[in-house]
């Protein structure tokens, strides 16, 4: 896993799609996919299947983030098939995916995170992910104990 990824808390998401509007404003097309009206983001795989399958090497790593070289991309959609969470799509003959706005010259922080008034979208590090996992595990244990499960 990369050092930073975007996480969505579906319970906080009001489905306003401000994140999608912000992404579209920065990149010309929103790179955020929706599944059941919840935004889905690229997990920035360390060994990105999208990059490994690309027949023309149009996907490369920059600061550990897979980026699509639009000039090299032939729109074959092999990356779409390879993506384990369905976060890549082809539009107008070019593959699109979240890059944490790394390829947007005017952004130093993902536009979608800044635009989320619900605080449902977070840019997190590996350490923060581990902390979230631990907190969720403790919540589950408390619930089980409250129901008499030991």
Task: Describe this structure as you would to a colleague.
- With about 150 residues, the chain is of the alpha+beta class.
- Helices cover about 30% and strands about 20% of the residues.
- The protein contains five helices and eight strands, in the order βαββαββαββαβα.
- The protein has helices spanning about 20-25, 50-55, 80, 110-115, 125-145, and strands spanning about 5-10, 35, 40, 60, 65-70, 90, 95, 120-125.
- The chain has a two-stranded antiparallel ribbon.
- A hairpin with a 2-residue loop joins strand 4 and strand 5 (about 65-70).
- The protein is globular, with a radius of gyration of 17 Å.
- It starts with a strand and ends with a helix.
Average of the residue pLDDT scores: 91
Number of helices: 5
Largest β-sheet summary: 2 strands, antiparallel
Please state the overall shape, judged from the principal axes of the Cα atoms: globular
State the share of residues found in helices, binned by percent: 25-40%
SSE string, helices as H and strands as E: EHEEHEEHEEHEH
Structural class call reads alpha+beta
Over the alpha carbons, how many angstroms does the gyration radius reach? 17 Å
Q: Report low-confidence residues grouped into runs of 5 or more.
A: none
State the end-to-end CA separation.
33 Å
Instruction: Assess the beta-strand content as a share of residues.
Output: 15-25%
Number of E-state strands: 8
